[in-house]
Design brief:
Blueprint lengths: L15 E2 L6 E2 H25 L28 H11 L7 H5 L2 H4 L4 H5 L8 E3 L7 E2 L2 H13 L7 E5 L5 H14 L13 H10 L11 H4 L2 E5 L3 H4 L3 H10 L3 E5 L9 E3 L4 H4 L4 E2 L3 E3 L6 H18 L7 H7 E2 L1 H9 L3 H8 L3 H13 L3 E5 L1 H4 L4 H14 L9 E4 L6 H6 L8 H10 L12 H9 L5 E5 L3 H4 L3 H9 L3 E6 L12 E6 L7 E3 L2 E3 L1 E4 L4 E5 L13 H13 L7 H6 L1 H11 L6 H4 L6 E2 L3 H5 L9 E2 L15 E6 L4 E2 L2 E2 L9 E2 L4 E4 L1 H7 L6 E8 L2 E13 L6 E5 L24 E7 L5
Parallel strand pairs: 2-8, 5-14, 6-7, 6-12, 7-10, 11-22, 12-13, 14-15, 15-16, 23-30, 27-29
Antiparallel strand pairs: 1-26, 3-4, 3-16, 8-9, 17-18, 19-20, 20-21, 23-31, 24-25, 27-30, 28-29, 28-31
Helix pairs in contact: 1-2, 6-25, 7-25, 8-19, 13-16, 13-17, 13-19, 22-24
This protein binds iron/sulfur cluster.
Length: 766
C-alpha cells in the first residue's frame, strides 16, 4: 500500500452523465467507503479508525454535525464520514521539496481536488512578501513572524480571526480569548455563511439560536418535514433516524427544488433489507418547490391551519400553549387573512392541492419536527422564512414536547460548539462580562466583522492580517474574484490547516501555513494524552479522543498553536496561563465552566461516557428567553423572488463526493455525474424553452441591478428534473456568480440559493 500524490490536475474531458439515482447508501455506499479506505489507509489503520469513529471512547467525525444515538452500532459512521476520515488520516504528506517545486501562482491554477490530494501538511512554511514560494520554517520562527505582524498593527481591529467549524471547543475558547485579549471582536466564522440566518431568527422568536429537539425526538415524531436539506449527502446518518421514525409510524415530507435520492429511498447498509432488499421509502410526499418559495409555502400552511381552526374551533390550534407561552397570534392571523393564494402558487411553483395535502398532514399530526439547512438559510428572506417555520410550529404547540420541534441541522462537526464558546463577532455583553470576571483584561465591546464584512474591510484596506483557524475562507465565501483580490491585498495571511486548499494559494503579500493535528490523531501534551470536546446539532457535548499516531512528529495541536500564537503576540505578561492551556486542556475547560452558560462542572460532565446536553429553555421547559419572555409569532411581508423571462433561478450545491469546499472526487453518484464538476443542471422543459440542449456547453451569467454581470464559463448542461425555472451548479465553482453585497436581510449570510442567471452558448468550452 503506497498511495501517491496525483501530479496532473483533473478536467471534465472524461465526464460521463447517466440518469440520477433514486436510493442512497446500500452496497455502493459500502464500496465507496471501504474501497478507498483499504487502498489509502491499509487494513490496520482502517480498522482502528472505523471502529472508534463516533464511539463513546473514540473520536468525533470531523464532517457534519449529525448527533450520535445513545446506543452506538459497532460501525457508527456513514460513507461521507468515512471519506472525511480517509481524507484526513491519509499517510500521504506534502514533502519539503513540494514548496520549491510549486510556486504559489501555480498552486492558484490548481483545483480544490488537486490541492486536497497533495497530502497532509507536516511542517510550518512561510511565503515572504515579494516571494512566490513558500519555504519551510521552524515553529519558533513562524510564531515570531505572526506575533510581530500582529503587534506591528496600528490597531487590533486591523486583524481578523476566522474559524471553521472543525475547531474543537477547547481551541475555540482559547482562540476567542486570545483575540479578545488582543483587543478585537473580529471573529468571523463559517456559521456566518451557513446557519447565521437560523441563529438570528430563532434567537429573536424563541430566545435560543439552536435546535429544540433531541435525537430521540425523531423516533417519536408523527410528521417530519425536511426543508432545503439533502441529508443523503450532507448528514447521511440522519437517514437512519428517518428510517427509524418511519418504522415507528412517522410520515416524512421533503420540500426541495431537487428530487434528492437520499429522501426517496434509503438502503441502510447495516440492515439486510438495505443490503439486498429494496431498503426503505422515506418521503411520503415530495414538494418540488421553486427556489425562494419556502416562506410563501409556510405562510400558506399556517393560513390553512388557522382556517381549519375557524371551521372547527378549539380542535386545531393548541390554544392553551398559545395563551401561556406565545404572543402575536392575532396579528399573524390578520396578516395571513390577506395572503393571496395566487401569489403563493406563483412563488412556490406548487399546486393548491399539494399544499392542502401537507397542511392536512400537519393538522393530523400531534408531534411535528421541521428540519432545515442551506436551502432555507441562504436566501434574501431567510430570516423571515425561518420565523415562518416557527410560526407554523407554535400554532399547534410543536415546540417543547416530545417528538416535536425546530431542528436546523448543522453542516460542520463543531460549528455550533464554536459559537457556544464565544466565536462570534457580536457576543452578548453577558458573555463578555463573564470573560472580564474570569480574566485580567477588559474585553472589547465594539462588534467585529462577520465573513462578508471581513472581505469588505479588506477591500477598504482596514484589515491587514487575516488568521484562519482551519477552513478555506476564500473558497467558501461568495464573489470569488472580489474575495481573492481582497485577500491578496492584505499584508499577512495565517492558515492553521491539515491539508492544502485554495486559501493557501490565494494569500496576503506574506503568508504562513501552520500544520495541525487531525481529529483522528492522538494529542500528547506535557500532562499526557488530551481529549477535546465538541457540540452537535442537538446541543449534545461530548469528548473526542484521537486514535492513531500523528502522521508526522512535528505537528502541533490547534490548542498548542493558538496558545503559542497568543504568547508570541501578547507576550508573557497577559496574565493568562497559555502554557497551562497547552499542557493540560482541563485548565481551559475549568475556564469554560466559569464563563460559558450551561457549562458549569464542564470537566466532570464531559468525562461522562455520554457527555451532557446543554440547557435549552424552549426544549426543556417551554421557557422562551426572548425580549418579551414568550415565543413570538411574527408577521413577515411575503416577497416573491422575481425571475425575468428567459432567465433561470440558480442554486449552488454540493456533490455527493464533497464536504464544504473539500472535493473527495469529481463524481456525484446520486445525480449521475462521473468525472466532472463543470456542469449546470437544468429542467428539460426549460431547455426546450431556452432553445438549449442537454450536453451543450454554455456560459452562465448572473445578473444584478446596477452591477456588471458575473460569469462562469464553459459549463456543460445536464438535463435534470429540477423544479421548473430553477437550475443548480456546484459550489465553490459557482460562488463567482454571487456578489458580496447579495446577502440575507438580518443575518448577512451570502444568498446563494436564488441567483438570477442567463445561459448563453459557450464562447469557449471548459
Ligand atoms: S452523518 Fe455526519 S457526523 Fe455522522 S458519520 Fe456521516 S458525516 Fe460524519
Amino acid at each position: 500500500m503506497n498511495p501517491k500524490r496525483p501530479i496532473d490536475d483533473a478536467t471534465d474531458a472524461l465526464i460521463k452523465v447517466t440518469l440520477p439515482g433514486h436510493a442512497a447508501a446500500g452496497i455502493p455506499g459500502v464500496v465507496h467507503s471501504m474501497g478507498p479506505a483499504l487502498a489509502q489507509l491499509g487494513p490496520r489503520r482502517t480498522l482502528a479508525l472505523f471502529t472508534s469513529m463516533n464511539q463513546k471512547e473514540g473520536f468525533d467525525c470531523m464532517s457534519c454535525a449529525w448527533p450520535d444515538p445513545e446506543s452506538r452500532k459497532t460501525l457508527e459512521f456513514c460513507e461521507n464520514g468515512a471519506k472525511a476520515v480517509i481524507w484526513e488520516a491519509t499517510p500521504i504528506t506534502v514533502p519539503s521539496s513540494f514548496w520549491a517545486e510549486h510556486p504559489v501562482d501555480e498552486l492558484a491554477t490548481k483545483s480544490e481536488y488537486w490541492l486536497g490530494q497533495q497530502g497532509r501538511l507536516i511542517e510550518p512554511v512561510y511565503k515572504a512578501a515579494g516571494d512566490d514560494h513558500y519555504r519551510p520554517v521552524s515553529w519558533d520562527e513562524a510564531f515570531a513572524l505572526a506575533g510581530a505582524a500582529l503587534r506591528g498593527l496600528d490597531s487590533p481591529h486591523q486583524a481578523a480571526f476566522y474559524t471553521s467549524g472543525r475547531a474543537s471547543n477547547e481551541a475555540a475558547f482559547a482562540y476567542q480569548l486570545f483575540v479578545r485579549a488582543f483587543g478585537t471582536n473580529n471573529l468571523p466564522d463559517c456559521s456566518n455563511m451557513c446557519h447565521e440566518s437560523t441563529g438570528t431568527a430563532l434567537s429573536e422568536v424563541i430566545g435560543i439560536g439552536k435546535s429544540t429537539v433531541s435525537y430521540d425526538d425523531f423516533e417519536r415524531a408523527d410528521l417530519i418535514i425536511v426543508m432545503g436539506q439533502n441529508p443523503g449527502t450532507n448528514h447521511p446518518r440522519m437517514l437512519t433516524a428517518l428510517e427509524d421514525a418511519k418504522r415507528a409510524g412517522a410520515t416524512i415530507v421533503s420540500v426541495n427544488p431537487l428530487p434528492e435520492a437520499g429522501l426517496q429511498r434509503y438502503k441502510n447498509p447495516q440492515t439486510v433489507r438495505g443490503m439486498i432488499g429494496k431498503g426503505t421509502t422515506l418521503a411520503d410526499q415530495f414538494l418540488q418547490i421553486r427556489l425562494g418559495g419556502d416562506m410563501a409555502l409556510l405562510q400558506a400552511l399556517s393560513k390553512r391551519v388557522l382556517e381549519a381552526e375557524a371551521a372547527r374551533p378549539g380542535t386545531v390550534l393548541d390554544q392553551a400553549f398559545l395563551a401561556e407561552h406565545c404572543v402575536g397570534l392575532d396579528e399573524l392571523a390578520a396578516h395571513l387573512a390577506q395572503l393571496d393564494e395566487a401569489e403563493v402558487l406563483a412563488a412556490t411553483g406548487l399546486t393548491g392541492a399539494e399544499i392542502d395535502e401537507l397542511a392536512d398532514r400537519y393538522i393530523r399530526a400531534e408531534r411535528v419536527i421541521i428540519t432545515w439547512a442551506m436551502g432555507v438559510t441562504q436566501h434574501k428572506k431567510a430570516v423571515a422564512g425561518i420565523k415562518e417555520i416557527v410560526n407554523l410550529l407554535l400554532l399547534r404547540g410543536n415546540i417543547g414536547k416530545p417528538g416535536a420541534g425546530a431542528s436546523p441541522i448543522r453542516g460542520h462537526s463543531n460549528v455550533q460548539g464554536d459559537r457556544t464558546m464565544g466565536i462570534w463577532e457580536r457576543m452578548p455583553d453577558s458573555f463578555l462580562d463573564a470573560l472580564a470576571r474570569e480574566f485580567p483584561f477588559e474585553p472589547p465591546r465594539e462588534h467585529g466583522v462577520d465573513a462578508v464584512q471581513g472581505i469588505q474591510a479588506m477591500q477598504r484596506g482596514d484589515i491587514k492580517v487575516w488568521v484562519s483557524l482551519g477552513g478555506n475562507f476564500v473558497g467558501a465565501i461568495s464573489d470569488t474574484a472580489a474575495a481573492e483580490s481582497a485577500m491578496r491585498g492584505t499584508d499577512l495571511t495565517v492558515q492553521i490547516s491539515t491539508k492544502l486548499n485554495r486559501s493557501h494559494a490565494v494569500t496576503g503579500k506574506a503568508a504562513l501555513i501552520l500544520p495541525t493535528l487531525g481529529r483522528t490523531e492522538i494529542d500528547r501534551q506535557a500532562s499526557g494524552v488530551q481529549f477535546v470536546t465538541v457540540e452537535d446539532s442537538v446541543c449534545a457535548v461530548h469528548a473526542s479522543r484521537g486514535r492513531v499516531e500523528p502522521v508526522a512528529p512535528n505537528l502541533l495541536s490547534e490548542v498548542a498553536i493558538v496558545s503559542r500564537l497568543a504568547r508570541a503576540t501578547l507576550g508573557e505578561t497577559s496574565g493568562i496561563d497559555w502554557e497551562g492551556f497547552e499542557s493540560d486542556y482541563d485548565v481551559i475547560r475549568d475556564h469554560i465552566a466559569a464563563v460559558v452558560p450551561g457549562c458549569a462542572d464542564y470537566n466532570e460532565k464531559v468525562r461522562r461516557s455520554e457527555g451532557f446536553v446543554l440547557p435549552n429553555g424552549p426544549r426543556d421547559s417551554r421557557t422562551f428567553p426572548t425580549a418579551v419572555g414568550k415565543a413570538i409569532l411574527t408577521v413577515n411581508e411575503l416577497e416573491r423572488v422575481e425571475c425575468p423571462p428567459g432567465r433561470l433561478l440558480l442554486q449552488t450545491l454540493r456533490s455527493h463526493d464533497q464536504f464544504n469546499t473539500t472535493i473527495y472526487s469529481r463524481n456525484d453518484r446520486y445525480r449521475g455525474i462521473k468525472k466532472g464538476r463543470d456542469v449546470v443542471f437544468v429542467n428539460p422543459d426549460d431547455l426546450d424553452e431556452l432553445g438549449l440542449d442537454d450536453g451543450q456547453h454554455v456560459d452562465v451569467f448572473s445578473e444584478w441591478p446596477g452591477q456588471p454581470d458575473r460569469e462562469l464559463r464553459g459549463m456543460r448542461i445536464v438535463a435534470y428534473p429540477t423544479a421548473r425555472g430553477c437550475a443548480a451548479a456546484y459550489f465553490p465553482e459557482a460562488n463567482v456568480l454571487i456578489p458580496l453585497a447579495s446577502t440575507a436581510e438580518g443575518s448577512n449570510t451570502p444568498v446563494s440559493k436564488a441567483v438570477v442567471v442567463r445561459l448563453e452558448p459557450a464562447r469557449t468550452v471548459g
